[in-house]
Amino acid sequence: MLDLPPVPFVGLTGGMGSGKSTALEALERLGALTLSTDAVVHQLYEQPDVAAQVIDRWGADVTSDGNIDRAAVARIAFADPEERSWLESLIWPLVGAEVIRFRDRAQSHEPRPRAAVVETPLLFEAGMEQIYDATIAVITDEELRRQRAESRGHAAADERHARQLTQSEKAERATFVVINDATTADLEAELALILEQLSA
Q1: Please, are residues 176 and 187 in contact by the beta-carbon 8 Å criterion?
Q2: Interior CA angle at 173 toward 144 and 129, to 5°?
Q3: Could you give the CA distance from residue 173 to residue 197 in angstroms, rounded to a whole number?
Q4: H helix or E strand, kind and range, residue 85
Q5: Which end of the chain is more exposed for a tag (fewer CB within 10 A), N or C?
Q6: Residue 140 contacts by C-beta under 8 Å, 6 or more apart in sequence?
């Protein structure tokens, strides 16, 4: 049996409103196996033990219809460094464990994916880049990015922007940089070239 090289393990990042989710969807269409850490966090808040710790910390005000209200959590966490640090210490290890499980599943996945890509907004800020074979930063016009983020109603948008590295800092640290300033088809074409390089 032919001994195939490992499936490339790739971290995808970018600022709020840069088009990370659009890029992740494009990579999936191109044959990559994908994971959104934002979706992982959403699932974690549905776990009774995680929800209980969040409610114990901040009370029923962070719930809506019996579920964790992520916007309410964000307003508290991003407004206070101590509260954000507490939340990160709870959530990040659990997200990291799921990312590693995803990487391991990708190696035996059928059909064989062209890459295993994880969308991680705070990839560099969390010091996670070392676990990946390569990283991709999606960047776009700064004013457009801000408008997108605010129009989507991201809670505590200014505090979130302040928490993240600038687009130029992300670009400097990434293996590949994709400029998302045209159509989705253009973005997908750029990402296709990156996948070709990863498998070369």
Answers
A1: no
A2: 105
A3: 18
A4: helix 81-107
A5: N
A6: 14, 17, 18, 19, 167, 179, 180, 181
Q: 170 with 137: CB under 8 angstroms?
A: yes
- The CA angle 40-18-107, to the nearest 5 degrees, is 45
Average pLDDT along the chain: 89
Q: What pLDDT, on a 0 to 100 scale, did the predictor assign at position 147?
A: 75
Can you state the percent helix, strand and coil of the chain, rounding each to 5? 55, 15, 30
Q: Do 76 and 82 contact (CB within 8 A), yes or no?
A: no
Query: Is 50 exceeded by the pLDDT of residue 33?
Result: yes
User: Which pLDDT score is estimated for 161?
Assistant: 53
Could you tell me the pTM of the whole model?
0.88
Instruction: Say how far apart CA 168 and CA 143 lie, in whole Å.
Output: 14
d(C-alpha 21, C-alpha 27), whole Å: 10
Instruction: Give the three-state DSSP class for 138.
Output: strand
Whether the Cβ atoms of residue 68 and residue 45 lie closer than 8 Å to each other: yes
Q: How far apart are CA 87 and CA 189, in angstroms?
A: 37
The position carrying tokens 């295993």 is 116
Place of tokens 């994880």: 118
Give the mean model confidence (pLDDT) for residues 163-171.
86
**Where do the domains of the chain lie, and which CATH numbers do they carry?**
9-199 (3.40.50.300)
Q: Residue 14 and residue 114: Cα distance in Å, rounded?
A: 21
Taking the CA atoms of 36, 42, 45 and 47 in sequence, report the sign of the dihedral they define.
negative
